[in-house]
Design brief:
mainly alpha
Length: 144
């Protein structure tokens, strides 16, 4: 039994949960939090005006990332408590990898986010996508 698949899913779970926490922290930190994490000028201005959209989006993304983190954590433990684990983890891996590789196209569609945001978040997505892919591959092949 190789520990690599288990470790990849634990890392994926921990990193995804940290990303979720960052999204939740933005809501409480306010405009400075969104600005610090690289949100575009229009989003920061919406937060400053008290608009609901940025906070709603941050909370929604945070919840989705938390669920993904739970799937990875339980899969790393070898527990099949959540339904469709293999399918969900495959989709999560695909979404993170697509997001990571598609950043040049996405950057032109979401004007205003800093270059640093795009490079860091895209690299982070590629790392997460790879960790999830290794983990789900191991699950599907019953490596651990």
């Amino acid at each position: 039994m190789s520990p690599a698949p288990i470790i990849s899913l634990y890392f994926a779970s921990a990193l995804t949960f940290m990303a979720a926490l960052l999204h939740f922290i933005c809501v409480f930190w306010g405009a400075n939090g969104f600005r610090f994490l690289g949100a575009g000028k229009s989003i920061v201005q919406m937060v400053e005006r008290g608009h609901w959209y940025p906070n709603f989006t941050a909370i929604a993304v945070g919840i989705i990332l938390t669920v993904c983190s739970m799937y990875a954590f339980f899969a790393a433990k070898g527990l099949q408590l959540l339904p469709f684990t293999e399918i969900i983890l495959s989709l999560v891996a695909a979404v993170f990898l697509i997001r990571g590789f598609a950043f040049p196209w996405l950057k032109s569609k979401f004007v205003g986010n800093s270059d640093l945001f795009w490079y860091i978040s895209s690299a982070f997505c590629l790392i997460l996508g790879t960790l999830y892919a290794v983990g789900v591959y191991s699950i599907s092949k019953n490596i651990f």
